[in-house]
């Protein structure tokens, strides 16, 4: 050979060397653990399609929150399964809503834990859509998801959550203009210091399937394609993020994570705000299911999936693996 062969393998010989030259690192500090709060007492009901993930009543959720915090995970994202659903999403914004109750209890018991509140109406609406539905046949559909009237309910929900002790408001509904509407409402209510984490580029995804079982939030008719993004669009995702930043988002999110690593990378390149990515229910379920079949090594694939999200540029990762990954990193 006329030239010396480049020996990249020199630095791969031992775990010590590999660790020394590793470009991307995971720490539990970057994780957010999603939790599903349900009514009752002593309830700990496993989600069928998400082994290891539970619907928890407030008392059980507080125990779990303690465990999460002790593992070095700084934050949880709270979702609620209300006692009743209706067409005004009352359970989302009432003072004694299920997430509001959980927030008060967690603030009391685990004051250091950062509480993020997912702001959306689908879990609280009887029809399972993320906004107000008008059932009038239009040009293309039998119904319409109304944008601007929905903003008012999202703003009301955000104010109520902040009042109950939620530290970070995280709207996931994908209505246009919601970040601005929520920012104004929070400011008017005196919550000027409450940050907004926008699910800015949220794609209409088949990977949300298990979540809809966990949160009992599947739409009763139609789908979410008229408000969530088309999976084919990267430039539009950047526009969504840009608008949310203009409207006052403090942090932005791309969701799902693994099928959209290019979107995460492009967003990291373009914007300077803290960037989160949500490794969603279907991403978790897929890995769990293959591992249960003995087809992949669970822990190894779990860590590989998380490092890929980090490498793409997410500084914050929402993941159902948070606890197990934190244990491996300890
Ligand atoms: C609410 C919401 C969803 C998820 C987070 N917030 C479901 C959806 O949009 O249908 C999905 C999270 C997951 O799949 O883990 N709109």
**What small molecules are bound in this structure?**
ligand PBG
Order of helices and strands: HEEEHEHHEEEHEHEHHEHEHHEH
Shape: globular
Distance between the termini: 46 Å
Kindly estimate the percentage of residues that lie in beta strands according to DSSP. Answer: 15-25%
The residue fraction in helices comes out at: 25-40%
CATH superfamily, please?
A: Aldolase class I
Classified by CATH, the class is Alpha Beta
**Beta-strand segment tally:** 12
In the predicted model, the low-confidence regions spanning at least 5 consecutive residues are: none
> CATH fold name, please?
TIM Barrel
| Rg calculated over all Cα atoms | 20 Å
Structural class call reads: alpha/beta
Tally of separate domains: 1
Number of helices: 12
- Characterize the main sheet: 10 strands, mixed
Write down the overall mean pLDDT.
96
What is the CATH-assigned architecture? Alpha-Beta Barrel
Main features:
330 residues, alpha/beta, TIM Barrel, two-stranded antiparallel sheet, binds ligand PBG
3D architecture notes:
The protein is an alpha/beta fold and 330 residues long. It has one domain (26-329): TIM Barrel (Alpha-Beta Barrel), CATH 3.20.20.70. The protein is built from 12 helices and 12 strands. Strands 1, 2, 3, 4, 5, 8, 9, 10, 11 and 12 form a 10-stranded mixed sheet that branches. A two-stranded antiparallel sheet has the order 6-7. Helix 9 links the parallel strand 10 and strand 11 (275-279). Helix 6 (178-188) runs parallel beside helix 8. The protein is globular and about 75 Å long. The mean pLDDT is 96. Ligand PBG binds at residues 118, 120, 122, 130, 172, 208, 211-212, 224, 280-281.
């Amino acid at each position: 050979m006329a030239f010396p062969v480049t020996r990249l393998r020199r630095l791969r010989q031992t775990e010590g060397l590999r660790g020394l030259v590793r470009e991307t690192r995971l720490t539990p500090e970057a994780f957010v653990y999603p939790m599903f709060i349900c009514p009752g007492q002593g309830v700990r009901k496993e989600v069928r399609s998400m082994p290891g993930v539970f619907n928890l009543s407030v008392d059980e959720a507080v125990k779990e929150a303690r465990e999460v915090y002790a593992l070095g995970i700084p934050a949880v994202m709270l979702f609620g399964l209300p006692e009743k659903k209706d067409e005004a999403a009352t359970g989302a914004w009432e003072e004694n809503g299920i997430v509001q109750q959980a927030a008060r209890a967690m603030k009391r018991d685990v004051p250091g834990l950062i509480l993020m509140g997912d702001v959306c109406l689908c879990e609280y609406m009887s029809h399972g859509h993320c906004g107000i539905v008008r059932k009038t046949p239009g040009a293309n559909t039998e119904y319409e998801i109304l944008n601007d009237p929905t903003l008012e309910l999202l703003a009301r929900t955000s104010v109520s959550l902040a009042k109950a002790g939620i530290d970070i408001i995280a709207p996931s509904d994908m209505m246009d203009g919601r970040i601005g509407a929520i920012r104004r409402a929070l400011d008017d209510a005196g919550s000027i210091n409450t940050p907004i984490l926008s699910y800015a580029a949220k794609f209409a995804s088949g990977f949300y399937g298990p979540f809809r079982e966990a949160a009992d939030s599947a739409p009763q008719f139609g789908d979410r394609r008229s408000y969530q993004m088309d999976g084919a669009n990267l430039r539009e995702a950047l526009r969504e993020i840009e608008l949310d930043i203009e409207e006052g988002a403090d942090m932005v999110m791309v969701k799902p994570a693994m099928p959209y690593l290019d979107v995460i990378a492009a967003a990291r390149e373009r914007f300077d705000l803290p960037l989160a990515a949500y490794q969603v229910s279907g991403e978790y379920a897929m890995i769990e299911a293959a591992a249960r079949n003995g087809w992949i090594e669970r822990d190894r694939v779990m860590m590989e999936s998380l490092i890929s999200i980090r490498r793409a540029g997410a500084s914050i990762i929402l993941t159902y693996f948070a606890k197990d990954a934190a244990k491996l990193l300890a």
